[in-house]
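Student:
Attend to each token:
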Amino acid sequence: MTPTDHPIKRQLYVLSISKLFKDIATGMLVFIIPLYVVNMDSLILQDMPTVLKAGLATTVFGLANSLSQPYMGRLSERLDRRKVFLIIGYIVFAIICYIYAISGYFESILFFRIVQGIAIGATIPAVITMVTHLSTSTVRGQAIGIYSTLRGAAFGIGSMVGGAVVTYYGYVAGFYISAALVLLSSILIILFVEETKLPDTNTPAVPSTIEPFTIKILAIAMFMMLVGIMLIFSLLPAYQIRLEASEFLLGVAISAYVISRIIFQIPIGILSDRFGRKIPILAGIFFNALIVYNLGHVDDVNSLIFLRLLQGIAMAAVETPLLALAVELSGEQNVSSKISIITSAQAAGVAIGPLIGGIFGGYVSFEAPFYISSLLIFLSGVLVWFALRKNTEIH
């Protein structure tokens, strides 16, 4: 076997490592932004509850990210280019990190979060397609697990770094460091990452009659999973008061999810390659429903950290096999536009989760968003079970 015939190509590792610094910056911003905006001056939204302000700042980014992905995915297919989308998206991302540091009003942060979301929306279908091009179907779960593990590790480190930087140096320093890290990733991609193409393959595509319905159901499940995971970001100020926790320990709680997720992603990906995608996907969805319910009842920061560790395992069991299955359902053709349905749903979950947390946590009760989300995750698991059970071609 020659190096070019290897089922996972070396460029997959080059791509993943080049993105590490950007992913660290993303983890920093996810932690910093909700805490930063609650004390900002506002022009027209002065009376908004703090948890809703924190949620809205996260939501507008996620919605812009989600809505832009299908269009960007189709555009990258039409142009048959992916690398340029990464470079432009990351450069815009870095510039806006700097703008955050000099913005004076909450509304200006919301506007630039929208622009930053569009920039990242341009990169996600491109990078998932590149991962697909750099692996074969027999190791697709492993390849996605490798990529997601390196990305997740950097994201988790970013949340902890963000907590430490804010605690000791302030928010402005966090934004400057984020901008520098994203620019570094942009340089590495320009220098070392090669454009990818779909390799020639004789693998038959899964019949198209099952593809649209099943991919949409998988997207719904991914959306619900992310809603449950992202709820706590708008509720960080409430957790800080209820649990009497420092910014650093809250950062550890955020990172705990990512740490356990990255530990389990590659092993679960390998197992799904060998024994099938269905069982880990369903187990992870139902397990996450139980975890989300209990996140509304933690009474100390150690319990919060523990539940977030379990939530990372649940997500690892779902994301890697689910994305691999979606690629197989697409027949490995037009991956950008088809996988963008799922990655767009992920981004929408990232957006809506904090908003649900902010609205129901701010106007109903702290526990209400967790009850609602856990029920919706459970129902999405039932839909996935039904869809995969109906399609005997899927293993």
Observations:
- The chain has a mean pLDDT of 83.
- The two ends are 28 Å apart (CA to CA).
